[in-house]
Amino acid sequence: MKKSILTAGLIIGSLTVNAEQKMVMDGSTTVGPIAKAFAEYYMRENPGVNISVSESGSGNGAKSLLNGNCDIANLSRDLKDSEQQAMKDKGVNPVKHVVAFDALPVIVHPSNRVKGLTIGQVRDIYSGKITNWKEVGGSDRKIVVVSRETNSGTFETFSELVMGKDARISSKTEYAGSNGAVRQRVQMTKGAIGYAGLGFVDRSVKALEINGVMPCVQCVLDKTYPLARELFMFTDGEPRKGSLAARFLALINTEKGCEIVEEIGYVPVNAAMRK
Question: Residues with Cβ < 8 Å from 168, sequence gap 6 or more?
Fold first, then answer.
């Protein structure tokens, strides 16, 4: 006889759908490609598992974890003190899992003759002190400044590493909703400058040297590239051994997981040990 409710799942017709076989992920557009690739691989290897991935930004990912609307929150930055306090007040115990390392390349149109900038020059461009490429060795062309939106973890990282506590981004700056949107604006605009995750840099844009160092895997590992960061997946508490979340996160340190991360363009967490 069919029951309407089971302890482990629900009955729909003659099919049992176990709650353990569903997982929701939300957050960073930078971590999103890793999460999606992991999810596609895991679902292909484990028929019947349903993993959904949304990309609403790191800030919204943290809110989703706080409100119990996701199982894993993807963030391209660490939690803010205010987010940690809000979670503590609500009984949420955020546990971070480093999923990859990333550089934050500063990108321009391929035709731009400027090869590199210092952190100070990038700061002056984004604060509005430098407004023309001729001021940094380029052509006489107005600089079109493009940034990620303020709810983005990528924006938070850029603000911390480049702008610091005192500098403010110019009111004339354009804001883009994703790394892909930043790249698209830059590749279509000769005077544009932007920044995005390492996995979003291709031949349609040119990455600049920063303080004389090009963004690359080795430069991330040896920490010589000044704009580098960790990428995270957060859970509420340590996932129970054998749970879907635990099995999913275990992909991070597997050979296949590392291959996926590398294919997307990021640096696997155990890249140094694999050399």
Answer: 127
What's the CA gap between 49 and 64, in Å, rounded? Answer: 21
- Helix runs in 178-243, H state only: 179-187, 217-221
Domain count within the chain: 2
Mean pLDDT, the chain, integer: 90
Question: For the chain, what percent of residues have pLDDT higher than 70?
Answer: 91
Let me know whether 174 and 257 are in one domain: no
* Structure tokens belonging to residue 51: 């993993």
Neighbour-count burial for 189-203, b at 16+ CB within 10 Å, e otherwise: ebbbbbbbbbbbbee
> In this predicted model, what pLDDT tens digit does every residue of 155-184 receive, in sequence order?
999 999 999 988 999 999 999 999 999 999
Same domain for 200 and 143? yes
Residues 141 and 42 in one domain: no
At 18, the amino acid letter reads: N
CA distance 234 to 28: 11
67: its two tokens: 């409100």
Residue with tokens 């062309």: 141
Q: Please name the residue that has the structure tokens 């004339």.
A: 172
Query: By the 8 A CB rule, do 77 and 234 touch?
Result: no
